[in-house]
Amino acid sequence: MESIISKNLEMKFPPIVLLKSDIKPKDAIGPKTENGGCAMSFVAQTIAKRKTTYFGREHIACGGISVGFGWGSGMANEDAIDFQASFLSLGVNSAPDREEYEKRLEKMPKSTQEMFKHGERIYCDFDTAKKAIESRPVYDEGKYVIFKGLEDLSEDEIPKSVIFTVNPIELTVLIQINSSFRDNNACILTPQASACQAIGNFVFRESESDNPKPILSPIDFAGRSKMKHFIPNDYMIVSMPWELFLKLEKISENSIIQTDLWKKFR
To answer: Where are the alpha helices (DSSP H) in 30-156?
Structure first.
């Protein structure tokens, strides 16, 4: 399948899709060890090199990826939530039990310790981070997520998420098409979420809505850092449920793309 929007905009990176499966895909690139690292490096390879990649439950290496790909909350208990909330805010300076937090850091590789010591600064304080963690949309299904180019999608496959990778002008077009059928200004979402969550569980939640919206990302610099080898820094990601993608494709056939005004930006 080829995206009408991508073709008309001559996108450098055509859209890719996220699929859920209980079966490990053949002829796909995945983690070589049990500790899979950050899944965004695999997503980036699919975007840039058009290679099918996958990530499984057995490869989970961080607190955010479980919920991101719909494998439960990822939080075993209250202590795990407190540790994650500390990391996502100001690290040691946010930890309710500073001594216990520092003990956990001692077990990490030194390169990782520094990031956890200062925190990821996604949230301004511990309380805000904890509330956000507890309000994440949680799903629990499938053993694997699979990423492939839209062009490689089989007729019987229905993606859980369609992922566009866009430069500023392409983003402007997507936003305009997406906003063109809505009668309010709340047209696109930017959840304070990790990169995997923005293409995963937040999109899953939108698919349940009568008025689904796309998700703009990544605002997670840790996730973005795993993509920069493949994706230029000035590109953003817009993810959406399959049904919304099909709707935007149809609308795009009679949109800004067909005007003389658009031709000035080609």
So the answer is: 40-49, 65-68, 78-88, 98-106, 110-118, 126-134
SS3 239: strand
Name which residue leads in pLDDT, 40 or 64. 40
Exposed, middle or buried by CB within 10 Å (0-12, 13-18, 19+), for 209?
Answer: exposed
Average pLDDT, the chain: 94
Cross-strand bridge partners of residue 29 = 53
Q: pTM for this structure? A: 0.93
DSSP-derived secondary structure letter, 189: B
C-alpha to C-alpha distance for 243 and 249, rounded to whole angstroms: 10
Q: What letter does residue 111 receive in the DSSP assignment?
A: H
CA atoms of 250 and 91, how far apart (whole Å): 46
The single-letter DSSP state of residue 29 is: B
Contact criterion met (CB below 8 Å) for 46 and 53: yes
Instruction: With beta carbons less than 8 A apart as the criterion, state whether 64 and 197 touch.
Output: yes
